[in-house]
Give the backbone structure.
Amino acid sequence: MKIKLFSYNQLDTYIHHLSGLTKFICFLLLTTTVMLSFDIRVILFVLILSFALFKVAKIKFGQVKLMLVYVFIFLITNFILTFIFAPLQGVEIYGTEHVLFTIGGPYVVTLEQLFYQITKLLKYLSIVPLGIMFFLTTNPSEFASSLNKIKVNYKACTALSLTLRYFPDVQRDYHAISLAQQARGTELSKKEKLSKRFKSILAILTPLIFTTLDRIELITNAMELRGYGKSKTRTWYAYRQLTRNDYVAMSICLAIFIASLLITSFVNHSIYFNPFI
């Protein structure tokens, strides 16, 4: 069976069997843990846990290859720009200066700056697998029903569900239009110049936009004909009760979050871990 890119796929794994609400809460707890800390030990722990869960979820590299390429480009660009605009940020944070070598002018490569930028890079890198895993292992309808059970307005939940379900449809439509354009002689392979390929892709976007607008109108009319929004509540076919595994997963993530706060407050006395003192 060919697995679609950027879409939910039902597999028999521990991660897939968790409630959408559980995965959302765990995602928030772990990402907040990483965002509130510059302790490389905490970040590395979350990073290793993220990739371990990635393996448990049986996510194929082919599913996320394109996404990882864009993430890698972003990380490298951010790494370079951070050094260009703040080459001594690490020195200011850690209060010491160990010069490795001088590039020229104000651009001095220090151990503190390198440590700071690597920590920052790992922060981004540890969040990416969590976001991908949440996106690819969560049933949109089940996730929306779970949010509604905790008193989130069901109209907002439905809108969220439709948005998540629509990504694979956009991908499928783009692929179909792309094949149709190539059948008419449009060259989209690597043999063509980048500028012409870019113009060809723009030509695909126009029918894709019109197709999207037509589908939005179709869904809107169908919902109006069925009286959607007339009642204050609605029923959900995809709702899943929280199980023991859900509570265990949330407890572990909450423990990691609390532990990171304790390390920040009582061990580091700062959001930064300073190995230079």
